[in-house]
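In this section we walk through a basic example: taking a raw amino acid sequence and producing a predicted 3D structure, encoded as discrete structure tokens. The instruction is simple. Fold the sequence below.
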Amino acid sequence: MSKFNKNILFLIFEEFQNDSKSLFSCLMVNRLWCEVAIPILWRNPWCYDINYSYKSYLFIIIASYLSDDIKESLTKLGVQLPSFSYQPLLFDYLSYCESINTETMNTITFIETSLAYNQFLLQQEFYRLFMKKFQDLKYLDIKSIKHQIFYLPEAKLRFESLYELKCDTSIDNSYFYGLAQLCQYIQRLIILNENPIDYHGIAELIGVQKNLKYFEWIDDDLLTPFSNNVPEPDHYEEILLALEKNANIINHLNIYFVCISRTSQKVLPKFHKLKTLRVSFNKFNEEQLKTCVYHDLETLEIKYIELKAASIIIENSGGYIKKILLESYEIDDHFIIENFYDDTLYFIHKVYEKCSSIEYLSLVFPPSKQHYNEFEKLLKICQNMKSLCFAIYMDKYLVSNKEKLENGKELLKLLIRSAPTNLREIRFPYDMGFSLDILEEFLEKWRSRPKLSILTCNNFIYEEENFVKLVNKYKNDGVIKDFRCESFENVINMDFKI
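The resulting token sequence is shown next.
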């Protein structure tokens, strides 16, 4: 019976594997819960949103595994180690661990010494220890690494099981050549581009992969794009051509290039099995876009200024799209795209025509009667909608506050009439005006529906006393789950939980 309970607890705790607070709470219940939670916590103990510079106990646990000879050698070299109790550890913590994070290792070793050489010695011994003690190595984050750990004796055996690699392009090419010899079955590869000088090593690593499912490349925002009017070499050509070798197996593609890549127009149409697509289609003409056919697509994230491209991709999809996100920013007249009126209308139409099962959606459109009518059609057809993030574009220099309130009133009336029964969350990333009376009328009519969460940008009107009282009233009545003002970044980020 206890074995059965242990297995059930393990399945439950697995659901909290990314929630350190909940797992730490489980440790305190009883010994059984502790025995189940510890292996899950230590599978990837560096992934939690905590300040590791205050976690000296992690250093003590790891250092306690060092042999007496290593401890003595380090002490002679000037590395001060804490005094260790001879009482054995309650758990063989490192045997559960499947991950290495070099930035966290740097932080943990800095707790004991600020001397760069001593940190280097400690990290070197810790990596040797990990290669010996880990049964599997699944997650490797080598951003800012200084150690060529792939040369360690046990590295070949450990690296064969690597599932996820995170790295940056500031690493010397020799690291990537070494990894390419050992890691050919990586499923998730995440790269931060900080040093766009020589991509040969990383291209070699990408090209030898045989089971790559997820690829992410993010240019550092500090990189300076070249002028689009001046012909420049395609800086991403080598990367994209290496990635093309995996085009038939990659399911998730997330690419943010600062510079324009002409090679992307040849390569992107070849990824026929994509389920997630986050890229820019800047400089694609309509004929090139029509070759980008992704029948299995479930998540599409695209720049707001590329609405026409998004519509064409949706038109050629297989009807399985569940999430459409528009990468957005503060909209003003400088960013309003040519044909904004027609493109937004066409986009809404394509969503309800081809994505009737959509669950998460970003929208932006002007406050015209035609747009409101199309939006209402979308709400009536897309009955699986759970979360809606949208903006009604109004020129802030020409639209009066009265007009904003009228548009807000029209929008809330429309939502009451036609919002799908599954809708649980509404996000307003821009300044959206609702009078107190209209908001109260909306919430009153929402009573018969499931609890609603509302997220707005930092509009201080909703923090006034009358609005706070109104929100608290409907919270207490169970009409709304939450009504919060958040940063623009949090509002548009659908992964940010309310």
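Looking at the output, two observations stand out. The first strand starts at residue 99 and ends at 101. The longest helix spans residues 116-133. In the next section we compare this with other chains.
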